[in-house]
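Supplementary Data S3. Sequence and structure tokens for construct A.
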Amino acid sequence: MNEKKREKILIIEDEADLVKGLELNLADEGYEVGWAADGREGLRRALEEAPDLIILDIMLPGMNGLEVCRELRQKKANIPVIMLTAKSEEVDKVVGLEIGADDYITKPFSVRELLARIKAHLRREKMEPRTVPRTFAFGDVEVDFVHFKVKRAGREFDLTSLEVDILKYLVAHKGEVVSREALLDKVWGYDKFPTTRTIDNHILKLRKKIEEDPSRPRHIFSIYGEGYRFMD
């Protein structure tokens, strides 16, 4: 019988003590763990080793975490990325999500919370393909779900993996009202740590990419007190 392949997590973080603690906890959960102490080395290992998930600090020597994330997405590396940020890095959190990070967690953090988020993102990566095509067009919008791209009126935008999964779920349930709780459960895979505001923030970012006028959406409608409805 073949031994089940362990999922690999790459930690890109220069705080050795923090990494040692994470390595122990992740190993206890059955993960294979890799570590890079600077951004350039982390980027190289991420591209060469293609881990299942990356834990990425923003403040790194050589190349900061935002630059690492940007390079990963430009090179079509659609690996889930959880960014580690300090409380003072609020702007960097927003930028990180805009350039393709899937999630962030603020230091100091609960290891239990981080493990829950890791499991959720890995579970989401394994989800069975939904009944949506590889590409999908509506209005003046063309979405490439495989390459995480959207074109609107000739302009091209990158999509994060979370945005892709949100849009896939909405498209798969076209015309139906999808609750925020359903999106949290089906897309994130957990409902303890994020809030429904998390969904709203991602919908706002998604609208900026697919709507001609995000303040007057024609495709992703807010249903007061319920959730969202997608119409093509």
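Construct B, processed identically:
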Amino acid sequence: MSKRYSKVIEKLSNKEIVILDGAIGTELEKRGVQMDKTWSGSASLKFEILKKIHIDYIKAGAEIITTNTYPSNRIMLDAAGLGFRFEEINLKAINAAVEARIETDRDDVLIAGSLSHRFPIAHGDLQSNPTISVSKSYLRGVCDEMSEILSQNGCDFILLEMMYHPDRIKTVFDSAKNTNKPIWASFSARKSPEGKLLSLTDLVDFPFKELIQIVHDYNIDAVGINHTSLNIISETISEIKKVYNGPIIVYPDTGGWISPNWIFDHVIKPKDLKKKAHQWVKEGAQIIGGCCGTSPNHIKALSELKIAK
């Protein structure tokens, strides 16, 4: 465990607010990088643009920046014919964050290594339905490969992002555990037409409260919610608090999605996100940031919560 990581854990133990960064993939798109079969996975090859995004988030007040590795596991890269560039793409993603920290002279900023169970999604699809299926053993190998490159190249901890598929999450958790790095885990949720809180996947109506039970089986330093609609964040915080008494992470999405592009219409204004986040802090959230659709301007607004508190 790095000294910088220990200092952030100390802040959380003292009930301080810690600011996470905002979206990486959609910010790359906003800055002109074309999305492809990997979504934003191969965009790490646009190294200078990616590094500038990390720098902008640090300058906006982010105390944690996240590697652009959520969509660049081997399953995603193979689907785009880029599997042979796995190491190149992912090392660029990690090094963009490392260099951003160096160039801003902010050695205190943490780098979160993003690990997911993301599968390819067909262009034009509104849902989370994957275009392929793989065995659990193959998925484990894919996650182990990603976990190793994250843990060995400068990430302070592993951030499990968008944990929503009940058949995949244990594989990802097990892989992260084997790195011996600290683990944070963020889940994703949706509301059914009947008003039930469910896991984000629309392949099965799986209760959110059952999905998050997995945290009992692992040593997790922070648990939370990401890539989830603003209007159900409070309910997810309430459910997480029933199973976990540590620091809670909140970083919602805003806008819309038609694969592989984000729809930036109706993205919440930074000042309005800050207002909502103030309520989430009251409800128990300590680590606050943004997911798809958010920008450095949103993080700058959120960083003002530390002053307000």
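The radius of gyration is 17 Å. The chain has one domain: 3-308.
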